[in-house]
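Trying the structure run again after the queue cleared.
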Amino acid sequence: MRFNDPVEAGPALLVFGGEAILPGRITSTVTKPVSAVTDAEAREDGFAGAADVLPGLRDYYPQLRPGDEIVIVRFELTSS
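Done. Tokens:
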């Protein structure tokens, strides 16, 4: 997925490192500036709070700034 590609809720596959493929469903997506991420959204993604999102993501995206937009995708695994 590229940044500007549309993302729709529905069936999807979550791929980890090209090895683990998990079936599921995208339940929601939202695009927002990093600085607008709420504490609740940050905690859902494993951060202690919104203030930890930017430093945490900089490990992967060193050029990331507070005004840059990110896409938050919620994925629900399909029961097997």
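DSSP finds two helices and three strands in the chain. Worth checking whether this holds up in the mutant runs.
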